[in-house]
Amino acid sequence: MQLMATTVIGRLVSEGETTPAQGLPILPNIGELIVGFIAFAILFVIVWKKVVPNLEKAFAERAAAIEGGIRNAEEAQAQAAAALEQYQAQLREARTEAAKIRDEAKEQGSAIIAEMREQAQAEANRITETAHKQIDAERRQAVVSLRGEVGRLSTDLASRIVGESLHDEVRQKGLVERFLAELESGAIRPEKVGTDSAGAGA
């Protein structure tokens, strides 16, 4: 712009169309310059008094909001970190508790199995003892029955050999008891009928 003004002034001076007395056409009038300066000063004061404080206030509010947001973000981050640590602690505690419960369950299971084994063994012993008692009772009953049967057969056999009746109760009982006692002591040995017959035949 100055180059243009200088070119225009140089051209006017060289052509002789204007003189220094008339003044330069691009220079402002003093009155206009004063009015412009006053208007600029008024505008500057208005901007300085009204616009700048509002801008500074808005800037301060914006800065406070940003700082508050940063502070809130930091607090939220701290709370999130604390919550994460608490969650991890609860998770570790839950895992420890689960392991403890699992171990207790294993111990209880082992105790229950041992108790059931003991109960089964006791029941087996009781059944075995009952079976032994029953077998002993049946054996005693069989012995008594066999003794009676042997006594009756012996009495019948002796009656046939002797030729008189031996069915008298006292006599029969004495004979039977004596015969069984001698049989148990080994004084009487039963002989095979087939052997006797073979010996007699010879």
- Percent in strands: under 5%
Indicate the mean pLDDT: 76
Q: Helix coverage percent of residues?
A: over 70%
Low-confidence parts: 1-5, 16-21, 193-202
- Largest sheet: number of strands, sense, barrel closure: none
Tell the overall outline. Answer: rod-shaped
Structure description:
The chain is an all-alpha fold. It has one domain. It has helices spanning 2-15, 30-162, 169-185, 193-201. Helix 2 (30-162) crosses helix 3. The longest helix has 133 residues, at 30-162. The relative contact order is 0.02. Mean pLDDT is 76; it is low at 1-5, 16-21 and 193-202.
SSE arrangement:
Blueprint: H1 2-15, H2 30-162, H3 169-185, H4 193-201
Summarize it.
The protein has 202 residues and is mainly α. It has 4 helices and no strands.
Characteristics:
202 residues, mainly alpha, 4 helices, rod-shaped, disordered N terminus
